[in-house]
Structure formats: structure tokens, C-alpha cells
Design a protein that fits this description.
Layout lengths: L15 E2 L4 E2 L3 H4 L30 H17 L5 E4 L2 H8 L14 E5 L5 E4 L2 H9 L8 E3 L14 H15 L7 E3 L4 H9 L4 E3 L1 H8 L4 H24 L6 H15 L3 E9 L20 E10 L2 E2 L2 E7 L4 H20 L6 H5 L21 E4 L6 E5 L16 E9 L6 E11 L2 E4 L10 E2 L3
Parallel strand pairs: 3-7, 5-6, 7-8, 12-18
Antiparallel strand pairs: 1-2, 3-4, 4-5, 9-10, 10-11, 10-12, 13-14, 13-15, 15-16, 16-17
Helix pairs in contact: 2-7, 5-6, 8-9
Length: 452
């Protein structure tokens, strides 16, 4: 029996309809089985330069578009839904391969509709829709539409924008033959939901379906995540060199943010910077506190390259380190390595959760109170995707890990001095043989910045 090729499918030039500005048959439409992620596990994980070149294959963005749409179609086909209507910016980008400014994330003004029988429709803010018609030829031009359901109430509902949008959506559902089937929605304003229901549309949740679709990353997605991690590697070198007495937490944040945008980040979502007595309990923020000799300090880099996120913690001490600080770091590293050693396809998530300490071991009264300190979370266009592994949820809802998942593993251990703490995070790609770490700034032992 011939071995199935692991190379990604090739889209030929003649399959493009130049008049409509899109392929006559996309890879997504052609896929009737499992969309091929094109993994190349026999080769090192790629972290190429950020420019496109003619002498190397780097990220193939059209192949990336097709894979994501194919994954969504497959998930939709098995969901019992006739269509999905998404407002979550990550879901919109995954389905339609479009994005506008980060300012739009909390406005609920952009939305995307995909039926089981058609191509995606995107309603976007004013002139952005016209821009998509010019620069996004992978969909018919009449699928890019201006839309605005009210800017989170800034335009009063009595204007009727919810009703207008719902009527337009219902017409498309009917036209594409799914008007009597349930419509999946991820997040929505109540007024929009009520307008859809008033037209007789049965609305169901589709966020679980979308997370199913986004679970397995393709070769191109893994490459983008690896590039983003490499940017974090470089910024941690800068932090290591700048971390000295007299520097404030916010100055580290400013420097890191500037460097990331210089490197090509499209969004620096947050930089946590925590030092000294602020380390325990973890506040998940930064202030203008001044760094002092002997401080333990930890940082989290949350940013994205082409939409693909990092969540990347490192801990340092400044000038010197105490035994209590070393001991906390050793424990955090031990929990980290124990979890990573378990990560491989076929393992179920509750087994990995057992590698993390119980809440009381780190001084918390419950797993809810300790949540987010020792756990794993999926990483992709979203900061928290599947798998999400913790003592809070994984014993109640275990599921099997698969090759192609990408996630962050986080550990936290407070020190016996009552103020210091160690915080480590590694990003890993789950290959057929186990977890491959892609966050490479050294973290096996506690780094001491500007050692005395």
C-alpha cells in the first residue's frame, strides 16, 4: 500500500477564477475528510525570517487560509448547525483571514457568517469592508459588507440596526438553504440575539465547535507560533540586561513593548512585570515599583505575530539570590518538567493535571483560588484555547491529546520568605513523539541578572 504523502496539497494557478477574484474550488471546499495540516515532523520546527522571499518556502498564507476554513467546515458539518455567526475576533480571523485594528476587539461591530453550503460573509466597520474587496481576493466581492449593529449601545437600539442586521442574515440563511436549521453564535449582544430569535432563528452556542476546529495547528500555524516565540526569546535577553536596581517595572514594560513592535509584533496585548514583595500572591499586572538588589522578578510576554500569540514567563533575581528563592525556582521547574514529560499524543489531560501541585501546596484554599498558576492552556489566535489542563477542570472532563496541539505550560511556586516567588512558562508543540519546547531563553536554573 502506497504511503500517503505528508506534503501539503498544492493549489494550481488555473484553479483561480480571476473574474470573481477567488479560487473556483478552494482547498477547503475540496476537503471532504480530514484537512491536511501538512506537518513535517521529520524536520526541525521552522522559525524563518519575517519577510517573504522567493528562494525559500516560509509561511504560505493562502494555504493557511484554506486549512483554517477547511477545519471550520469540518467542525460545522458535524455540529448539527446550519451556519455559524461569530463575533469573537479570533474566530472571525480564523474563518475569513481578515483583521482590523486591535481597537475593534471589544466593540462587537465586526461579524462573520459561514453556512454549510457557502463561502464566509464578513460585515466590517465602514471603509474596512471596501478595503477587503480590494485586497482580499479569496472571497467574492459581495461577501465583504459594511455593518454596524450599534457600537455596544452607543447607537441606541431604537434606530433598528439589530433588526436590519438580523433580517440580512436571515435572507442569506434562506438563500443558502439553511434557514430552518439552528444558527451557532459565539458571543453576542442581547439585542442582536433577540432580533435573530424574533425572526424564528434557533440560536445555539458555537464556541465549542470553533475551539474544536482551532485545536490542531497546521505547519504554517506552528511556524507563526515559533516566530512569535523567537521574538520573546530576544526580548528576554533585553530584559536580562536591563534588569538592575533603580529600573522600574513600567520601564521594563515600555522597553519590551517597543522591541516587540520593532521586531514585527502586530499586537502587544500585555507585559506582566512583577518584582520584590509584589511577587506573592501573583497580581497579573505591572506598576512603577523600582527594582531593588536581591529582588525576585518575573515577567510575562503576551503578544502576537500575524495573530498568533505568545504566553511566555521567565523569572530572574537581581544581583544575587537567596536559598529560599532558589528553592522556589527548583520546585517550579520540577513541576514544569514533570508536566512536559507527560505530554504526548494519546495521553489524557487528567494525567497531566496530576503533575501540578494541589492548591494548598502553594498556599491557596481551593483550586479555583489557585487557578492559572499551575496549568496548561492551548495557544493559537487565542491566548487560551484547547487543551486547557488544570486541577480545576481536567479530572471532571478529561480528553485525549493529539499531535499538532500547541500550548503553554505554566508553573508558580511561592518562596518560604513570604514575598518572593518563581514563575516559569514554556510553550510546546505536541509532536508524534512528545512535546517540543519552542521558548528558548534559558530557564533550567534561576537566572541572576547583573550578578554581583
Amino acid at each position: 500500500m502506497a504511503k500517503k504523502s505528508m506534503e501539503p496539497a498544492v493549489i494550481k494557478g488555473e484553479s483561480i477564477d480571476r473574474e470573481k477574484g477567488r479560487r473556483r474550488q478552494t482547498l477547503a471546499e475540496a476537503m471532504t475528510g480530514h484537512p491536511d495540516p501538512g506537518h513535517r515532523w521529520e524536520r526541525p520546527l521552522q522559525a524563518p525570517g519575517r519577510m517573504q522571499v522567493d528562494f525559500e518556502e516560509r509561511v504560505d498564507f493562502r494555504r493557511l487560509h484554506d486549512y483554517r476554513l477547511a477545519r471550520t467546515r469540518k467542525a460545522l458539518a458535524g455540529s448539527g448547525l446550519g451556519a455559524v455567526l461569530v463575533f469573537d475576533q479570533n474566530n472571525i480571523r480564523y474563518i475569513s483571514s481578515t483583521v482590523i485594528g486591535e481597537w475593534a476587539r471589544d466593540k462587537l461591530i465586526r461579524y462573520c457568517l459561514l453556512t454549510g453550503n457557502g463561502d464566509p460573509y464578513v460585515w466590517d466597520f465602514g471603509s474596512a469592508a471596501r478595503h477587503h474587496r480590494l485586497y482580499c481576493p479569496w472571497l467574492p466581492t459581495n461577501h465583504w459588507r459594511a455593518g454596524n449593529p450599534g457600537m455596544r449601545g452607543a447607537i441606541h437600539p431604537r434606530v433598528g440596526l439589530f433588526e436590519d442586521a438580523a433580517t440580512e442574515i436571515k435572507a442569506i440563511l434562506d438563500e443558502e438553504g439553511v434557514g430552518t436549521m439552528p444558527l451557532g453564535v459565539d458571543i453576542v449582544e442581547p439585542g442582536f440575539l433577540f432580533a435573530l430569535q424574533k425572526l424564528g432563528i434557533e440560536v445555539r452556542d458555537c464556541q465549542q465547535m470553533m475551539l474544536d476546529a482551532r485545536e490542531i495547528k497546521s505547519h504554517d500555524e506552528i511556524t507563526l507560533l515559533n516566530i512569535a516565540a523567537a521574538m520573546g526569546d530576544g526580548v528576554y535577553q533585553d530584559i536580562y540586561e536591563q534588569l538592575k536596581p533603580g529600573v522600574r517595572e513600567n520601564e521594563i514594560v515600555a522597553m519590551a513593548t517597543k522591541r516587540l513592535y520593532e521586531m514585527g509584533s502586530d499586537c502587544v496585548e500585555a507585559i506582566n512585570a512583577i518584582a520584590g514583595e509584589r511577587c506573592s500572591p501573583h497580581p497579573h499586572n505591572f506598576t512603577d515599583r523600582m527594582i531593588r538588589p536581591g529582588d525576585q522578578a518575573y515577567f510575562d510576554i503576551i503578544q502576537s505575530y500575524m495573530g498568533y500569540k505568545t504566553c511566555y514567563y521567565r523569572t530572574f533575581t537581581v544581583g544575587s539570590a537567596t536559598e529560599a528563592q532558589h528553592e522556589a525556582y527548583r520546585k517550579a521547574r520540577e513541576w514544569m518538567d514533570g508536566a512536559i514529560d507527560l505530554l504526548r499524543p494519546g495521553i489524557t489531560t487528567e494525567r497531566v493535571a496530576q503533575a501540578f501541585p494541589e492548591a494548598r501546596e502553594i498556599g491557596f484554599e481551593s483550586e479555583m483560588a489557585a487557578f492559572g498558576l499551575n496549568f496548561c492552556h492551548g495557544l493559537g489566535l487565542g491566548l487560551h484555547e484547547r487543551p486547557l489542563i488544570s486541577r480545576l477542570n481536567s479530572f471532571k472532563d478529561p480528553y485525549e491529546l493529539k499531535a499538532g496541539m500547541v500550548f503553554a505550560v505554566e508553573t508558580f511556586c511561592p518562596a518560604k520568605d513570604g514575598v518572593s516567588a518563581a514563575r516559569i512558562e514554556e510553550e510546546v508543540v505536541l509532536t508524534p513523539t512528545g512535546a517540543k519546547v519552542i521558548t528558548l531563553f534559558p530557564a533550567q536554573e534561576l537566572p541572576i541578572a547583573n550578578k554581583y
